[in-house]
Specification:
Blueprint (H helix, E strand, L loop, with lengths): L2 H21 L12 E8 L5 E8 L3 H13 L1 H11 L7 E6 L2 H25 L1
Parallel strand pairs: 2-3
Antiparallel strand pairs: 1-2
Helix pairs in contact: 1-3
Length: about 120
Amino acid sequence: MSAGYRKAMLESEIQKVLTEALRNFKGESEIDPTLVSIVRIELSKDKRYANIFVSYLGNDEEKKKAVEFMEENKGYFRTAVAKNIRLFKAPELRFHEDIGIEASLRISKILEEIKKQEQEKEENE
């Protein structure tokens, strides 16, 4: 089994565990934890750090609150990872807002505008 394959499998397992932990979260929060999505996880080579990219259904302020919620409860989530995945040491979790969806929408809008401009140029010529 190659190291890259193992890393990908661990990232996938961590994502599953965190999603389950979000679903079972019982604490107080300003946001609805069931609307938080774990989009992707990037595990460091030494498996000591996990960058977790989070998305939330809501406006920008609510998205920031979702990341803050995850940061405030990182001990709960790290414990869930430690209990469910056999690792020598559970990775330190670092939560980030995922901007992939917004970026792809912005790029598609720009491409549509370019296409319209090219069509207008062709019509004018």
